[in-house]
Specification:
By secondary structure, the chain is of the alpha+beta class. About 30% of the residues lie in helices and about 25% in strands. The chain contains six helices and eight strands; from the N terminus they run ααββαααββββαββ. The strands form two sheets. The chain has a five-stranded antiparallel sheet. Strands 6-5-7 form a three-stranded antiparallel sheet. Helix 3 packs parallel to helix 4 and helix 4 packs across helix 5. It is globular and about 45 Å long.
């Protein structure tokens, strides 16, 4: 919500099973007018086994939520170099922890670019902070990321595939938003 309250529902199961769980129905039913962000992710594991700590969206230090598609080749090096704690085994967690540490020091956009300079590999990522729940940091380098703005409901939707996104939004008024490869953007819902 705009006050930073959130709920997180995730499971280490295939998406087809996930959407049939009662908890998923409760989570969807809890989406209301005060909802500022809804994140979803299906996992194709590249690093780490299929367990809850490795599933996304990931919550980092109670304040940050993120999803990531891609592979960070130097995640172990980054975790060691920057002294990042690990709860799971994934490269995504390292990316989120690095972004969170930079956010605390200087804010989203100013240091997301420096984070991308340290990261070796491809990524498409959406990250939010509970302190600024009306903002999302979106990063893209070497991975597909389709974005769509729905002006009638003031929603930014995303997917790794424009065809899936188009099918999900069929019949709705929307326009495509392009984030060029190698760029980061901060989306502010209040502006």
């Amino acid at each position: 919500t705009s006050e930073g309250k959130h709920s997180l529902f995730k499971r280490a199961v295939p998406a087809k099973m996930f959407v049939q769980e009662q908890g998923f129905a409760r989570a969807v039913a809890g989406i209301g007018e005060d909802t500022t962000v809804v994140m979803g992710h299906t996992r194709f594991p590249t690093v780490g086994d299929m367990r809850l700590e490795n599933c996304q969206p990931m919550r980092i230090d109670k304040d940050f939520l993120g999803i990531h598609n891609g592979h960070i080749a130097n995640h172990e090096f980054l975790a060691t170099r920057f002294g990042l704690p690990r709860m799971g085994q994934t490269d995504s967690e390292v990316l989120f922890r690095l972004l969170a540490s930079r956010y605390r020091k200087r804010g989203w956009l100013s240091h997301s670019v420096s984070v991308m300079e340290h990261v070796e590999g491809a990524l498409a990522s959406v990250v939010i902070s509970r302190k600024t729940p009306h903002q999302a940091l979106i990063l893209r380098r070497g991975r597909p990321l389709a974005l769509a703005w729905l002006p009638d409901v003031e929603v930014l939707a995303y997917s790794s595939d424009i065809l899936h996104l188009s099918a999900a939004l069929e019949g709705l008024h929307w326009r495509r938003v392009v984030l060029a490869n190698g760029y980061a953007a901060r989306i502010n819902a209040l502006q």
